From TrEMBL:
Superkingdom of the source species: Bacteria
Protein's recorded name: Glu/Leu/Phe/Val dehydrogenase
Entry keyword set: NAD, Oxidoreductase
InterPro entries in alphabetical order: Aminoacid_DH-like_N_sf, Glu/Leu/Phe/Val/Trp_DH, Glu/Leu/Phe/Val/Trp_DH_C, Glu/Leu/Phe/Val/Trp_DH_dimer, Glu/Leu/Phe/Val_DH_AS, Glu/Phe/Leu/Val/Trp_DH_bac/arc, NAD(P)-bd_dom_sf
Coiled coil: none
Similarity section: Belongs to the Glu/Leu/Phe/Val dehydrogenases family.
Domain (Glutamate/phenylalanine/leucine/valine/L-tryptophan dehydrogenase C-terminal): residue spans on this chain: 147-356
SMART domains linked: ELFV_dehydrog
Length: 360
């Protein structure tokens, strides 16, 4: 059973549509948030998480779907922004029936929303959801999917970092620069490879001993430090947060010695005002959602029939987008995070407006 809440006027957070989905028998409780379809169908992952309340789940999906609209707009995709949350503990309630029930709700939207993986959902889950809906990306390679999205996420972060380096030092090369990578997970490892290939000196940290072992084995030249506090205080040129959100906060920013921040983690700014603190300290922040868009570019490519080379070419353009944002920030005298939002809003308005041209 599903309850559709659709508004002619934008809702409190400016969303086009919020869909509440419930299937009692399988235990499914989900909310799909469609922030904008101005540029095309909304794309964004499904987060499966044991929220404390329905209000908390709703707040998260509204926030995340809005963020996806901005990310997809600046990634140059013909896709709008959406996101979904399934409310529950995936370890307790995830089942074939629940995922397929969810897939039917996605299908019922007729292509207004494409789903993908997020926290608590995996490639194998997308394969199950795909048995009920065409509107799913992030499937396994065997099912025509794009596979592990961290490959192009890391490539895009590297491109964004190169653009930031060019802005600060006049050359995009990272040769001889000291880059601090916080988090040697899927993205951090690929990024380390690109940096080492480019001739950068990498300093890294991770809380997981297996990640440190990976670095010792694969990149013995990488210097390892105890924790992120040590990394932030280290003599580095670039800081790449590749672990959790909130990496840039009231403690880390005053201690940071790097001139550039460019990393994969989502929601790096702990609260609004941090972007100004970074700018006041002369630290150039390449906005997270701009430089980490390689993953969504990779999964979005599935909609056309996945082609790695084409997706990589698109992810490479993150260099140009980051450069454009940094120039706009200078011209308009605002932090890059503000310039990025302005550029995304401009594309949504300018291109979205064209829908009014009648096609018969
Ligand atoms: N994978 C993608 O395609 C993708 C796309 C966009 C954004 N991101 C974001 O990038 C970040 C990294 O993603 P991932 O796929 O590599 O995740 P991951 O889980 O593979 O890696 C995260 C790594 O960070 C480490 N870590 C956790 N807490 C830490 C801490 N306090 N200090 C140091 N290390 C710590 C973990 O041990 C792990 O090795 C996440 O914030 C994710 O949301 C990922």
């Amino acid at each position: 059973m599903g309850v559709f809440v659709s508004t002619d006027d934008p809702g409190p957070a400016g969303h086009e549509q919020v869909v509440f989905c419930q299937d009692r028998q399988s235990g499914l409780k989900a909310i799909i948030g469609i922030y904008s379809t101005a540029l095309g169908p909304a794309l964004g992952g499904t987060r499966f998480y044991p929220y404390a309340s329905e209000e908390a789940a709703l707040a998260d999906v509204l926030d995340l779907s809005r963020g996806m609209a901005y990310k997809n707009a600046l990634a140059g995709l013909d896709l709008g922004g959406g996101k979904a949350v399934i409310w529950g503990d995936p370890d307790q309630v995830k089942s074939e029936a629940l995922l397929r029930a969810y897939g039917r709700f996605v299908q019922s939207l007729g292509g207004r929303y494409y789903t993908a993986c997020d926290v608590g959902t995996y490639v194998a889950d997308m394969d199950v959801i795909a048995r009920e809906t065409r509107y799913v990306t992030g499937r396994s390679v065997e099912h025509g999917g794009a596979g592990d999205s961290s490959v192009l996420t890391a490539w895009g972060v590297f491109q964004g970092m190169r653009a930031a380096a060019e802005h600060v030092w006049g050359s995009p090369s990272l040769r001889g620069r000291r880059v601090g990578v916080a988090g040697l997970g899927k993205v951090g490892r690929h990024l380390t490879g690109h940096l080492v290939d480019d001739g950068a000196e990498v300093v890294a940290t991770d809380v997981d001993p297996r990640a440190l072992e990976w670095a010792r084995t694969n990149h013995p030249g990488v210097a390892l430090v105890a924790d992120t506090a040590a990394l932030v205080a280290a003599d580095i040129d670039v800081y790449a947060p590749c672990a959790l959100g909130g990496a840039l906060n009231d403690d880390t920013v005053p201690a940071l010695r790097a001139r550039v921040v460019a990393g994969a983690a989502n929601n790096q700014l702990a609260h609004s005002g941090i972007e100004k603190l970074l700018a006041d300290r002369g630290i150039l922040y390449a906005p997270d959602y701009v430089v980490n868009a390689g993953g969504v570019i990779q999964v979005a490519d599935e909609i056309e029939g996945f082609n790695f080379d084409r997706a990589k070419l698109r992810a490479t353009r993150i260099f140009d987008t980051t450069r454009q944002i940094l120039r706009l920030a200078d011209e308009e005298g605002v932090p890059p995070a503000v310039a990025a939002d302005r550029l995304a809003e401009r594309r949504m308005a300018d291109v979205g407006r064209l829908r009014a041209i009648h096609l018969g």
